[in-house]
Amino acid sequence: MAEILAVEVVDLSKTYGPTRAVDGLSFGVPVGTVTALLGPNGAGKTTTVEICEGFRRGDGGLVRVLGTDPADQKLRPRVGVMLQSGGMYPGARADEMLRLVAAHHAHPLDPAALLARVGLTGSAARTPFRRLSGGQKQLLSLAMAVVGRPELVFLDEPTAGLDVRARHETWDLVEELRAAGVTVLLTTHAMDEAERLADQVVIVNRGKVVAAGTPAELTRGGAEGELRFRAPVGLDLDQLLAALPTGSQAAERAGGHYVVRGTVDPAFLAAVTAWCAGNGVLPNDLRVEQRSLEDVFVDLTGSELAR
């Protein structure tokens, strides 16, 4: 049975003057899942999300949000959008802003309880927006995106500027949204955030999708793992490699630190340890390392995500 998509993007294109910001981009966001959209600056992800949110129009291709045109005003009560800037009254207090947004929905969450949930209580709730810290503004924007009980939420860098505690509480909130059946499409520069939250990761570069899949699929697919251990200096690595599958690599670092590369599966691990046992070598601090999502991102885009 085909997946039901909350967001469907097919061959989307968008041009600004001579620049083709989005170039035949396609992906889908299944209902009830969290999808992380990653890409270096200028990759086209912001333009793509703004088209999905209904704030821009594509030049070509098809975009459907909850089965309809994203510009359809009937979608507004069903979709929550977290904005990085704009849409705020600088002089309005945090609690006033959230109550104002809640008033536009038929069955909103309780604004006071939601403010407490995101950590904006006491004086913070009564502080004008312009005087909130950057992190507090992020938390208020997040609350405004979810207060209307949306079916679909767009989150733009939801934890940017937050301290460690607030980041983890925000992650918990996103996981609660998913558990409640809410679909989430988020952009982030935090690889640990994408690995923790996303059911699916879509990596965009130069206006095109260059990879898509679960974090596990992306870090496993085509990846050569590393097996690391410490042992006496000067092991015969040619002899070790003769016991391993063709294409494996081995190197000795300073101080008897060894790195063995290949498709690290149970058979590979057994072959290395069997060779060590047969040669009287005790591999200390033996550990398996696989490529991280950030490694995959850098390999595919040639860029490192901004910190």
TrEMBL record:
Under the heading Pfam families, the entry gives: ABC_tran
Key words of the record: Antibiotic resistance, ATP-binding, Cell membrane, Membrane, Nucleotide-binding, Translocase, Transport
Transport recorded as keyword: yes
Q: Which GO terms describe its molecular function?
A: ATP binding; ATP hydrolysis activity
Cellular component, GO, one term: plasma membrane
Question: Where does the protein end up?
Answer: Cell membrane
Q: Which Gene3D superfamilies match?
A: P-loop containing nucleotide triphosphate hydrolases (3.40.50.300)
This chain's protein is named ABC transporter related protein
Q: Which organism is it from?
A: Pseudofrankia inefficax (strain DSM 45817 / CECT 9037 / DDB 130130 / EuI1c) (Frankia inefficax)
Q: What is the lineage of its organism?
A: Bacteria, Bacillati, Actinomycetota, Actinomycetes, Frankiales
